[in-house]
Description:
This protein is α/β, with parallel strands linked by helices. The protein is 27% helix and 25% strand. The protein contains ten helices and 21 strands. The chain has a six-stranded mixed β-sheet. The chain has a six-stranded mixed β-sheet with strand order 15-14-16-17-19-18, covered by helices on one side. The protein has a four-stranded parallel β-sheet with strand order 4-3-5-7, with no helix packed on it. Strand 3, helix 3 (99-105) and strand 4 form a beta-alpha-beta unit.
Amino acid sequence: MEFANATYLWGLLGLILPIAIHLWSRKKVVTIKVGSTKLLQVSEPKQTSSFKMNEWWLLFLRLLTVLLLVFILSEPNLSRTLEDSKISYVVEPSLFDDHRMTKILDTLPIQSIRILEQGFPEWEGDKITEKTTPKYWQLANEMKKIAADSIVVFSRGLMKGIHGRRPRIEANTKWIVVEEVESVERPISALQKEDYIELLTLKSNSKALSFKKDSIANTIENLEFNLSEDSLRLSSHSQEKWIAFQKNRPIRIGIVYDDSLRMQYEYLKAAYSAIAKFLDRPLEIAVLKELTSKSTINFNTLVSFNKVILKDSKIPMLIFKPNDFATKLVEPAPAANLFYLTALLNSENIVSGQLPERLLSLLNRHKKIEASILMNDQRVLATTALQPMQSKTIKKKNKASILKMTPWLWLFLIIVVLLERILSKIRKQ
Length: 429
């Protein structure tokens, strides 16, 4: 037994008080004046001893009350060490609905199966509806907490579950990839053109991710828009889900510069004209005197040569900040949605520095459909690439099981206090 607050054990000295009070009350002699003793009956010895026995029980309950209060303040815990099991099986949540995985699970002891998520809870035989792809390598670092000699991990091995660098872990693990058999093909966005709708369809399997564009006439009857006209549903497709819908709005760029930097404006205008032609969208460039939150709300990108920065801007901002040590013409800044133009533009560096490509990435034109792309990406990483690096020294882990006794002590204390009050009322003490 271990105590979280062992200092409170000094309170056990309080056990002296009930004993002292009990001994003091025994010395008291109460004189009762009566007129005559002729009608009094001699009490039986059994009844007298019964009274003495009740007094001892009352003393015991009061001592027990003090003892329980001291123990509750000390917070006692029972701990025991569990030896590692031989093998633990960790399964990705989405695999519990896979019939191939079900056949494997039926052959494994249920107490050795855990779920591949934070904390690695034990599987209780219920179906798992969670479809979120786990972060494989972050969870691999936590597998040292599993008390097992070896760990077998069943996962989808999806590329979208890989974040950061490959970890080096102490646990003896073996990763097994269970690939998705069926490929995914579904429309994810629609763009309004002059007289037709351009439909973007995603197709993905374990090997590749690709996109295709189709043209749909505006006059067909199976088009259905929501009230805000930012989503579209095609009743002719096998799936009836709403997809993102965008009108072919112009690219709006706001630029702040002075007359001495006229050529910088011309270079930027030429770069954005190439982007507009590539995206088949109209272009609007506005020259601004200064950057304010109200005047820049409807722009796609802001470019400033006066180094003025809007705090917490939701619009990508390109600020001119020369840097002779920069390796790229456009570099991200520490703040969100902020980028630096590291050199003055000329006919040479706009080509070598890939200025149009850099400016195109600032438009965030696929921001609304990124979540849909990530959800439907079925590309799988090879098992050898997914497997974390193994540490040379593998330490044997012992899992400590801790049982907190405080809640049970509170329950026991309530029962003892009730008994003490009932008995003291009977004895009138």
